[in-house]
């Protein structure tokens, strides 16, 4: 096996270990880690069987096989970025909803407490004599 | 009949007292809600001292989010109408009263207080008046109704429509011409009457600088396009 393949294999395995470790430590949700694991596996497969990219390039008609690799990785990265954007948008509107509800709820609580305080002080005045 | 005046406020401690006093003197029988968008100054304390209802955001989210918080509050308390009212002192309570009267008389869903319908002495900067005319023309073209002042902040909304805005999970950052077009196309009864407004007394306008108006133009055009695509899909 050529050196360069071993290098990529080690890199991919380290990457996978890192992703799994983050998932174990609950820094990354299981569902969100799946895509990254898939990515790592693809790199491992290509490391073991580099001819795959040649076969694929032939199949599509790309003359210079490594450029297909770059094209595919760019597409995957763009997709991942879009996914991130989507999720951030969703999180933004959820955070906004929460903040608005929190604001309304705490103003209600303040009001109730104020009314309660009023009630208490009235009772104290009537009980005093 | 319940009416809620919603005042989105960011750093309006200096103006709030006068604004609330004006509302209490000239617009009877309404509740007042100040939505404090995480102000750096004493806006919240001033509101509480004045004895009006006050909702505070835990962090700054912008004018539109503050307005929507007001709609959500109103929806929970089930008010018949809400009045959007600026906290900087440029709106007059007497004019808000006239808007409300029109809403009741004509059973309108939306009543806009317009600065440009008649010469009310309000002076706009050159570039801003171009923008206003442009969006006014867009509303006329796409909604088939002439609205002279699509960016006005003095607006009365009926229960049905503020509820719609309260539920929108993507209430736009700038709720102006885009929402108007959406409402008109959805069949809302939109009215507009000329009102007098004052110039700001303290604090800073949210549409200042060079980059912001450009971003506003681009975002608004894009938002209108999205509204059109959304409607035609049904």
Residues in helix, % of chain B: 40-55%
Q: List low-pLDDT spans of chain A.
A: none
How do the SSEs of chain A run, as a string of H and E? HHHH
CATH class of chain B: Alpha Beta
Strand content bin of chain A? under 5%
Q: Per CATH, what is the topology of chain B?
A: Spore Coat Polysaccharide Biosynthesis Protein SpsA, Chain A
Task: Give the oligomeric state.
Answer: heterodimer
Poorly predicted ranges of chain B: none
Compute the CA-based radius of gyration of chain A. Answer: 29 Å
Which homologous superfamily in CATH is the superfamily of chain B?
A: Spore Coat Polysaccharide Biosynthesis Protein SpsA, Chain A
**Tally of extended strands of chain B?**
7
Biggest sheet record of chain B: 7 strands, mixed
Structural class of chain A: mainly alpha
Please estimate the helix content of chain A. Answer: over 70%
Rough outline of chain B: globular
Greatest interface by residues involved: A-B, 12 and 17 residues
What is the count of DSSP helices of chain A, taking H or I runs of 4+ residues? Answer: 4
> How far do the termini of chain B sit from each other?
35 Å
* Major β-sheet profile of chain A: none
Q: Write down the overall geometry of chain A.
A: elongated
| Count of DSSP H/I helices of chain B | 8
């Amino acid at each position: 096996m050529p050196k360069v393949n071993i290098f990529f294999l080690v890199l991919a395995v380290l990457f996978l270990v890192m992703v799994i470790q983050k998932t174990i430590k609950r820094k990354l949700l299981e569902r969100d880690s799946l895509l990254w694991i898939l990515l790592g596996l693809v790199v491992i497969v290509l490391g073991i069987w580099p001819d795959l990219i040649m076969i694929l390039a032939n199949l599509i008609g790309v003359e210079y096989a490594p450029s297909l690799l770059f094209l595919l990785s760019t597409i995957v990265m763009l997709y991942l970025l879009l996914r991130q954007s989507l999720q951030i948008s969703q999180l933004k509107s959820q955070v906004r909803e929460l903040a608005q509800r929190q604001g309304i709820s705490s103003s209600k609580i303040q009001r109730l407490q104020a009314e309660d305080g009023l009630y208490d002080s009235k009772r104290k005045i009537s009980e005093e004599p | 009949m319940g009416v809620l005046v919603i005042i989105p406020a960011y750093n309006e401690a200096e103006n709030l007292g006068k604004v609330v006093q004006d509302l209490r003197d000239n617009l009877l029988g309404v509740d007042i809600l100040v939505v404090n968008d995480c102000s750096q100054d004493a806006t919240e304390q001033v509101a509480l001292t004045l004895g009006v209802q006050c909702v505070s955001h835990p962090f700054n989210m912008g004018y539109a989010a503050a307005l929507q918080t007001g709609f959500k509050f109103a929806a929970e308390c089930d008010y018949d109408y809400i009045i959007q009212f600026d906290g900087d002192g440029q709106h007059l309570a007497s004019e808000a009263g006239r808007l409300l009267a029109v809403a009741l008389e004509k059973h309108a869903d939306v009543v806009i207080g317009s600065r440009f319908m008649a010469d009310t002495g309000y002076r706009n900067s050159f570039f801003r008046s171009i923008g206003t005319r442009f969006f006014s023309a867009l509303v006329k073209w796409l909604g088939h109704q002439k609205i002279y002042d699509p960016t006005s902040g003095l607006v009365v909304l009926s229960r049905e429509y503020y509820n719609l805005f309260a539920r929108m999970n993507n209430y736009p950052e700038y709720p102006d011409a885009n929402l108007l077009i959406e409402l008109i196309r959805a069949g809302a009864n939109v009215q507009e009457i000329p009102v007098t407004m004052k110039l700001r007394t303290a604090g800073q306008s949210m549409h200042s600088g060079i980059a912001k108006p450009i971003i506003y133009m681009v975002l608004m055009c894009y938002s209108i396009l999205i509204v059109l695509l959304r409607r035609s899909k049904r």
